[in-house]
Amino acid sequence: MEIDLSFKMVSEWIGILLIFSVMAAIGNYVGYQYPFVESLIGMFILCLISLVGLIVEKLLPFDNIPAIIYISLIGLFVALPWFPLADLIIYYTSKVDLISLTTVLLAYAGVAMGKDLGSFKKVGLRGIIVTFAVIFGTYLGSAVIAHIALAYTGMI
């Protein structure tokens, strides 16, 4: 089996993760008033976990297991109470707000989509309608589930 991992690939991952970390930390500071340095440390920890998961995915011989599985397992492992740095990791990663991460991620997705506008045009009107239906259905389903959960707990 040939390992599909190169120094160039890992250095590109590191560059992207560093840029993502700084942008998310700025979003945390501006939007949610978290301390910038603590947010940045939390983002670096999350990106280190992601980088290790991406490398493990390339090194292990299981072709059908996606990197997100490895990243999740590594994140779970380092957050377990018996892991020596768990308290520190949990402290700093709790200074990262999920919305600031999704803002940066969606901005990146928008740029990537704009770059491949020719491919998007090939999808045609039917694909666009299906896309909007899926987004609307997901939003509506989430709202219904949230309403039921809030009503069940007596919050509304």
Molecular structure report:
The protein has 156 residues and is mainly alpha-helical. It folds into two domains: 7-115, no CATH class; 117-156. It has helices at 7-32, 36-59, 67-79, 86-93, 98-115, 117-153. The N and C termini lie far apart (57 Å).
Topology summary:
Layout: H1 7-32, H2 36-59, H3 67-79, H4 86-93, H5 98-115, H6 117-153
Helix pairs in contact: 1-2, 1-5, 2-3, 2-4
Name some characteristics of this structure.
6 helices, globular, 156 residues, 81% helix, mainly alpha
Brief sketch in words of this structure:
The chain contains six helices and no strands. It has 156 residues and is mainly alpha-helical. It has two domains: 7-115, no CATH class; 117-156.
Number of strands: 0
Number of domains: 2
Contiguous low-pLDDT stretches (5 residues minimum) are none
Helix content: over 70%
Structural class: mainly alpha
Shape from CA axes?
globular
Summed over residues and divided by their number, the pLDDT gives a mean of: 87
β-sheet strand percentage: under 5%
* Biggest beta sheet attributes: none
The Rg value, from CA coordinates, equals 19 Å
Number of helices, counting only DSSP H or I runs of 4 residues or more? 6
Give helix and strand order, one letter per element, not per position. HHHHHH
The N- to C-terminal Cα distance equals: 57 Å
